[in-house]
Amino acid sequence: MPDYRLGFESLRHELHDPDLPVQGDWPDWLTGTLFRNGPAQFEVGEEEYAHWFDGHAMLHAFRMDGGTVGYRNRFVQSQSRTEALQDGRIVRSEFATDPCMSIFGRVMSTFNPQPTDNASINVARLDDQYVALTATPLPVAFDPETLETAGVVEYADDVAADMSTPHPHVEPGTGRLLTQMLSFGRQCQYKIGAIPPDSRTRELLATLSVDRPSYMHSFGMTEHYVVLSEWPLTVNPLDLLLRGKPFIENFEWRPEGGTRFRVLRKRDGAEVATLAADPAFGFHHVNAFERDGAVVCDIVTYPDASIIDDLYLDRLRSDDPTPGTGHLRRYTLPLDGGAASSRVLGDEQIELPRIHEAAAVARPYEYVYGIGTRQEGQFSDQLVKMGVPDGMTQTWHEPGTHPGEPVFVPHPEGTAEDDGVVLSVVLDPAGEESFLLLLDADSFTERARATVPHPIPFGFHGQFFE
Ligand SMILES: [Fe+2]
User: Fold this and answer.
1) What's the whole-model pTM score?
2) Nearest to 458 by CA among 51, 95, 165
3) How far apart are the first and last CA of the chain?
4) How far is the CA of 291 from the centre of ligand 1 (A)?
5) From CA 13, how far away is CA 73, in angstroms rounded?
6) Dihedral pair phi/psi, residue 197, rounded to 5°
7) CA 183 to chain centre
8) Ligand 1 centroid from CA 411, angstroms
9) d(CA 145, CA 147)
10) Span 273-301, mean pLDDT?
11) Are 126 and 78 in contact (CB under 8 A)?
């Protein structure tokens, strides 16, 4: 029976079609390329990756010009993939897959670490390069025309980091890329780095020592501050050395510790506020801004970290899948300390949240776009546009189809925050294909679609570049 599970099957086919069939009215003004990233190969030889986050990265490029849409897809030729294909087995450890089964192999891999460069999560501009990103500090450069892999970009600094968020922020005004890192060691450290435009140097803005680091996928940024959300999913770094489990399985859910928000001032790295909140978990900060002596921080949250378990491939391919969506929660973090307060915005579930970055980052704002859940037992079966803070929603859905992360692209002469279009790669299992959907962002209704002649596995994130 064709269903969304096709989105968790490997796609080995690479193709280039300069002129996809388009239905509807593709806007003439929309010139640029939507790059999408996500896993596309979930097994090597007889071995299977365990988790949605583990599969080999594939880039997809949708090039738009004068009302036409071209498409190309290509695997990221990471060392992780290259070594795996050469050996016919999984070689490097991924988020939830660990090939080092023996003590010997484990110790060797600890002292001769080969962190994964399987950059499957996001896409960014770094210096003069287009890069694919994952949660290790190994951005992989690619050619924006051909999608050919150019190799890992070396930073021009000596910052030690083992983890690096795949969700850096572009700072309004300066264009700096702000990133959050984590280094493991006798003393673990969170680090905030700023990479100036046209640079590969991470200038350290803040460093915080931590005994049991929290698993954090993204962070918040306002005009003057950055916000770390320390969910109570934490690790004893020694366990990473000794326990021999896949990376994420060393983290423990300790709700008694609650969530801790740490507000750091960009100017001098000072921790200006530390705030306690109820236990929760989240992957995605949506936006944050300063108001009335507080930082307002919107995050898609879950009651606990079981969402990570729900995203193992065997669960996703089972008859009892996760909806894969959480709730948009607004935290208010007083800068004079005390406790954080929070409330859920709206009733709709949401994930892979996006905003009108150029207009809304680090400011009070009006709209969040994301994937959603319309029907229990489905995976991402609608797109959601949610008003903030009122939680009013508009939705798009088409029975039997499954949309991916919606990317907002503003109209060049637009004034309203939602004057533009929303682009989403939608899986059509019955047709064994995908299509790039284009919604008018204001009305949240379809304006056009361009059909791709193969099914694109569910991906994570993408960016539109002119
Ligand atoms: Fe993400």
Assistant:
1) 0.95
2) 51
3) 40
4) 26
5) 8
6) -60, 150
7) 20
8) 25
9) 6
10) 97
11) no
Rounded CA-CA distance 210/135 in Å is 19
Q: How far is the CA of 259 from the centre of ligand 1 (A)?
A: 19
pLDDT at residue 113 in the model: 56
Q: How far is the CA of 104 from the centre of ligand 1 (A)?
A: 33
pLDDT tens, residue by residue, 326-385: 999 999 999 998 889 999 999 999 999 999 999 999 999 999 999 999 988 889 999 999
- Residue 407 Cα to ligand 1 middle (Å): 13
Question: In 338-459, which ranges are continuous DSSP H helix?
Answer: 357-360
Ligand 1 center from residue 139 Cα (angstroms) = 15
Mean pLDDT over each residue of the chain, to the nearest integer: 93
The pLDDT score that the predictor gives to residue 367 is: 98
d(CA 167, ligand 1 centre) in Å: 7
Ligand 1 geometric centre to CA of 289 (Å): 20
C-alpha to C-alpha distances, 42 to 9, 87, 210, 323, nearest whole angstrom: 7, 16, 34, 21
**Would the pLDDT of 110 be above 60?**
no
Distance CA 2, CA 428 (A): 9
Cα of 314 vs centre of ligand 1, distance in Å, is 21
CA of 217 to the centre of ligand 1 (A): 6
Identify the structural domains of the chain with CATH numbers, from first to last.
4-465 (2.130.10.10)
Given a contact cutoff of 8 angstroms between Cβ atoms, the answer to whether 429 and 413 are in contact is: no
Average the pLDDT over 143-165 and give the result.
95
* 124 alpha carbon – ligand 1 mean position (Å): 13
Cα 103 to ligand 1 centroid, rounded to whole Å: 32
Distance 366 CA to ligand 1 centre (A): 21
Which amino acid is residue 110, in one-letter code?
Answer: T
Amino acid sitting at position 30: L
Question: Which has the closest alpha carbon to 462: 133, 91, 15?
Answer: 133
